[in-house]
Amino acid sequence: MLDVRQIATEIVAREGGYVNDPDDPGGATNYGVTIRTLKRLGIDVDGDGDVDGEDVRRLGRSQAVEIFLKHYFDGPGLGGLPAELQASVFDMYVNAGANAVKILQRLLNQMGQSIAVDGVLGPKSLAACESAAALAPHHLADAYAIARRNYYFRLADRRPASRKYARNRSGGKGGWIKRAEEFMSARYHMTEEEFSERVAAWA
Hints:
This protein has 203 residues and is mainly α.
């Protein structure tokens, strides 16, 4: 059985500490929790009556874990997914919100299912997941991780400011790509040559 709390703890470690990158649309972020998230949830970490950048700075690891469990796993109903998908979709939900589910829904449609791409894990989407998992029990997690990687590439194609998250300063794989590949079998990892070819147009 999956230890969801351990997965959340690993996500927090993967996200790292406080950053406020002007190129990141999420704004000030700590352990993967953005200021937008704190404001949306009304979490006043320092108890001063408002939610601002200082609340992001003071957010603790354990608080981030609880936010992810409640609002990014339980909230969207990720526990209803096949076990082999839960960790990757959870990780992606923290990173991209409901787009994590839309990526899955598009993939399921590509696999012959017929569901709406609305970012909501309703009964039809969950049933489609079960059907796809039964048809391809050893491939669904890899397929989703590859779809995640493609999503990151498309984001970087469209938004030059985001390319630094997909390609590092030395020209190799950036954090986004490495993150997606953590959830797929090694045989589907891009070689450095393949990666270079994929991002060549960004130069």
